[in-house]
Amino acid sequence: MGMFILRRLGVMILTALCLTFIVFFLTNLQPNLEKLAKNQGNQRMTDEQVMSWLGNHGYLQSVPVKYGQWLGILPGFTRTLDSGKVTGRCIAEDADPTVKPRRFCGVLQGDWGLSTVFKEPVWDIVIKRLGLTGWLMLAVMCVMVPSALILGVMAGMREGSRLDRALSTISITSTATPEYVSGVIFIAIFASSAVGLKWFKGTATSAMDDITFANFTLPVVTIALYGIGYIARMTRASMAEVMTAQYIRTARLKGVTFGNIVLKHALRNALIAPFTVIMLQFPWLLNGVVITETLFNYKGFGWTLVQAAGNNDIELLLGVSVVSVFVVLVTQLISDIGYVYLNPRIRIA
Known about the structure:
Blueprint lengths: L1 H26 L2 H11 L6 H10 L6 H9 L6 E3 L5 E3 L33 H36 L4 H15 L2 H12 L22 H31 L2 H8 L4 H13 L1 H17 L1 H6 L5 H10 L3 H29 L7
Antiparallel strand pairs: 1-2
């Protein structure tokens, strides 16, 4: 197990470097850099002025060099002003000249840059918005996973029955309904004055400071409803397959009660495939809540991703990408380890 985890960690690091380099390359394309220069300088800047601004801030270096500086494995870019003062990536213009400047200041050193839109450190923004989305993800998982497993197990136990067909129809309907459709329907029915059922609030902005049942229910149900159907269908298919296995038939012939067969024999093996799907919900929730957070004006991680991309905030976009890659890789590692505990017959090779 130890060697397996070490190998997986090595692959994770290599994958993270490749993915972040691709994102870094795409965000540092020339049109994006020109737009950044004009946003930070003047929209009427000439091409010569744009190139001068980019050169003064180190954006005209080669992509591998800039990527190394962003990571913090290469010395930061520096330039000497006409006055003889040295500034750069690691040296602020108002820095104390008596203090020895840092040579390395990248992601590995905890310096994620400054957001050009919010004018705040990227790390502070990411942590704050990630915490808001974390609460939303926790509430969604608490609703989505138990509900989906119950529906899937109930349908899989009686394959072909009326209950199976009814639950399968509900699962397919929920999966086929995107969040922006169900969210609008929920707002129109339960939060607007058109129908009169003002049970909940149509916005989740107040939930950023104080989560209540009224301001947090609709966004949670909107996201959970879409995922419930997918997990339930996977659980149903896995459960139906396990219930036809030879050891289940043997248990029935021995007189084991149906409840014990489901809980002690079938359920554990049936959870292997749904476990994979459940773990994949974490990266999906982290980046897939963009529509829901925008619809309910909940300024979490997905909302931040939209703002960074829409405003060409390169540093913030890179920070959001790092967190997204990290979550995806960690959830995959947990999935691989979970396979072994759910089914010891799976060999680590």
